Amino acid sequence: MLVTLQEILAIAEEKKIAVGAFNTPNLDALRSVIDSAQELGLPVIVQHCQMHEELIPLDIIGPIMVEHAKKATVPVCVHLDHGEDLDYLERALKLGFTSVMYDGSTAPYQENLAATCAAVELAAKYNANVEAELGCMGKREFGDGDSDKTAGEKIYTDPDLAKEFVKTAGIDALACSFGTTHGIYLTEPKLNFDIVKGVREKADGIPVVMHGGSGVSREDFRKAIRAGVRKINYFTYMDKAGGEAGQAYVDEVEKGKPVFYSMIRKAGMEAMKKNVSEAMKTFAMLDA
What residues act catalytically? Predict the structure, then answer.
């Protein structure tokens, strides 16, 4: 069933868990995520990132995401991840997305705040919710192994500033920078859970979003959830699992024999589904 971000975060808050938010830039990823959620009986968020436009256009994958969400037996929010301009946000809203993220995290504070306020006003016309970001986590969404190169670009979220930002903008969720990074982790992340606790305390219990979730340890996920994280973005390691499975299939084909694209997809989807299921169990505080 298609639900809003606010509705799905209310479930997370009640159960004191986090809901997984998975980027789905192809049908195999989308099926892997929704099938896993249905088998586990868990709510889920499927996302399209604006930076993935070159992988698949929003106008193609968006309607498919919405249709799959409507047919699902569990609550599914269809969310735009890292929207960088209001026109793109509105395109997603017109397609039926129930939530959008405006990412002005690299802009000066006042510019980020003003644009986020405009995003909230826009989303309200479609009865949709808004996630925003305060702080900056470096590279975004492509998992290209450059996380260490952008570590110096991190700007950690100030809980006092978050209080003002949330109150003024009227957002439904806030992505905070507390030690995670987008992409592949080349060193173990050191997370500051006090930032999460501080934002929750000062910003009236706002649901905190963890970006850069792939590669974080199971125990650190659990600590983040106990601190107040209610949405965890996860894509890179899911995508990597699919790629490795496809590569393994190709490597196993006897030399001179044909390699079939459909079999690469099948292997990749099975691996992604396994990886996603394990992440969902962790986020839902279930035993593996």
Answer: 81
